[in-house]
From TrEMBL:
<comment type="pathway">
    <text>Protein modification; protein glycosylation.</text>
</comment>
<dbReference type="Pfam" id="PF02434">
    <property type="entry name" value="Fringe"/>
</dbReference>
<feature type="domain" description="Fringe-like glycosyltransferase">
    <location>
        <begin position="227"/>
        <end position="433"/>
    </location>
</feature>
<keyword id="KW-0808">Transferase</keyword>
<dbReference type="InterPro" id="IPR026050">
    <property type="entry name" value="C1GALT1/C1GALT1_chp1"/>
</dbReference>
<keyword id="KW-0328">Glycosyltransferase</keyword>
<feature type="signal peptide">
    <location>
        <begin position="1"/>
        <end position="22"/>
    </location>
</feature>
<dbReference type="GO" id="GO:0016020">
    <property type="term" value="C:membrane"/>
</dbReference>
<keyword id="KW-0812">Transmembrane</keyword>
<dbReference type="GO" id="GO:0000166">
    <property type="term" value="F:nucleotide binding"/>
</dbReference>
<keyword id="KW-0547">Nucleotide-binding</keyword>
<keyword id="KW-0735">Signal-anchor</keyword>
<keyword id="KW-0472">Membrane</keyword>
<dbReference type="InterPro" id="IPR003378">
    <property type="entry name" value="Fringe-like_glycosylTrfase"/>
</dbReference>
<comment type="similarity">
    <text>Belongs to the glycosyltransferase 31 family. Beta3-Gal-T subfamily.</text>
</comment>
<keyword id="KW-1133">Transmembrane helix</keyword>
<dbReference type="GO" id="GO:0016263">
    <property type="term" value="F:glycoprotein-N-acetylgalactosamine 3-beta-galactosyltransferase activity"/>
</dbReference>
Length: 455
């Protein structure tokens, strides 16, 4: 009896040992809480689980979806979730991060990681570097290319070892740099402060046989949500008299021609445009009072116009594609969301105090029903930053803020070439040191539309 007892104890211990060893890979999908993005993430998760069923010993510890397991506002920056990921997966050796619109070849992942050492402090992915100083990285730049920060292209995924996560999990993120989160990939690289292994044949821009992760070239058809047409979008353009003769003509000769409903809000009447003047003082920066007054004006104006479903707030130096915007909005048709390029304020520390916001230059797209609710939003000063105040108000309303990499706060040259290759384009911002018409023609005009497979 005693011998039998020892036998079963040994079997039990062996089963535990095997279970621990078989849970060495953890995958986190950088998903968002809305029907479309969550659906994309679930598709990827199910595909990964399906692949593991045909592998003898997959050693998959789990697949996390960011919006479910880490719903805090700063989770998309990666840094705040590392400690919890490590704590909950003490026996894991490797942590893969990927976007929802990706394909993960699990067998290739497993084969590659067998050759690596998880106890070492390493990470790997498709590393990119800035070619010149850029505003989105606060103009930090090393003339010597070997000394420049290399950061992972999220679209191609990246892997961190347990050794690396253990080293950085206890970093006090509140002491790190700026209170603003702009580019999660670049800022993560600054925190890690270790050279990323650049493996472009494993973490790929396009499909190849040895790829571990690559972005999907075909995206889900969103027409089952209902097609969004150009005449359901109302464009509200913020301008002022000093830009009537230079910025506004560019807008009118490019994407303004595709806008069915467009209104220019200025400090001076100009019938040649024409402009709408609201009873608010013009400010050099911030424009909070102007923006909130525009919302009140449009809420009242569109109350009886049931055809308009979306309001697009832009600057007069925003460049965008109207047909592509209509196409992508089909993915959130009927949902009360705010859509654009997401930044964050104070979201790495005490996240209860922080919030995400959509940066204004690339365009802020709002469901009309949400705009009606925003009419109660207050500015703490007329020249307060409108996009940040809007972010606070959206948080107070518990509204859904959706990030899409197709919107851009800066010019094309402010982004890595590989980043621009990974996503379709909806917008860019600024006319500074560029030919805006040429930028529009090259990046945004083309045939002025996506097929559904390019959303």
């Amino acid at each position: 009896m005693f011998i039998h007892g020892i036998y079963f104890i040994c079997l039990y211990l062996l089963s535990i040992s095997h279970k621990l060893e078989s849970s060495e890979i953890v995958i986190t999908i950088l998903s968002q809480l809305n029907d479309y993005n969550a659906g994309q993430a679930l598709r990827l998760k199910n595909n990964i689980l399906k692949q593991t069923k045909s592998i003898k010993d997959p050693r998959l510890g789990g697949v996390y979806m960011l919006h479910e397991h880490f719903p805090e506002p700063g989770s998309w920056t990666i840094i705040p979730i590392l400690k919890l990921l490590y704590k909950n997966n003490k026996n894991a050796k490797w942590f893969l991060f990927c976007e929802e619109n990706a394909y993960v070849n699990y067998e290739n992942l497993q084969l590659h990681l067998r050759e690596e050492h998880s106890n070492e402090s390493i990470w790997m992915g498709y590393g990119v570097k800035d070619k010149h100083p850029t505003i989105i990285h606060h103009y930090a730049f090393e003339e010597n290319e070997n000394e420049r920060v290399a950061y992972p292209l999220f679209a191609a995924g990246f892997v961190m070892s347990a050794g690396l996560i253990k080293d950085i999990a206890n970093i006090n993120v509140e002491t790190f740099g700026s209170d603003f989160s702009i580019d999660a990939s670049y800022e993560l690289a600054l925190v890690i402060n270790k050279k990323i292994e650049h493996l472009p044949l494993k973490f790929c821009l396009k499909l190849s046989p040895d790829c571990i992760v690559h972005p999907l070239s075909e995206r889900s058809d969103c027409t089952h949500y209902g097609k969004v047409t150009k005449d359901s979008i109302y464009f509200a353009v913020k301008t002022c008299s000093k830009f009537h003769s230079n910025r506004v003509p560019v807008l009118q000769s490019t994407w303004g021609r595709d806008a069915v409903h467009i209104e220019y809000f200025s400090d001076k009447l100009d019938d040649t445009i024409p402009t709408t003047v609201l009873d608010v003082p013009n400010t050099e920066r911030g424009h909070c009072l102007k923006t909130m007054t525009i919302f009140k004006y449009l809420s009242k104006k569109l109350l009886s116009n049931k055809a308009v479903k979306w309001i697009a707030l832009t600057d007069d130096d925003t460049l965008l594609s109207v047909p592509r915007l209509a196409s992508i909005l089909s993915c959130w048709n009927g949902q009360q969301i705010a859509l654009g390029q997401r930044y964050g304020y104070n979201i790495r520390g005490d996240q209860s105090l922080g919030y995400n916001y959509l940066t204004g230059g690339g365009g802020i797209i709002l469901n009309v029903a949400l705009v009606h609710k925003l009419t109660t939003c207050k500015c703490y000063a007329p020249d307060a930053p409108d996009d940040m105040v809007l972010g606070m108000c959206l948080k107070a309303l518990n509204a859904t803020v959706v990030h899409s990499p197709v919107f851009h706060q800066a010019r094309p040259q402010d982004y890595a070439d590989e980043y621009l290759e990974s996503y379709p384009m909806i917008s860019f911002h600024k006319h500074w040191m560029i030919d805006p018409i040429e930028v529009y023609r090259h990046w945004l005009y083309q045939d002025s539309s996506f097929g559904h497979d390019e959303l």
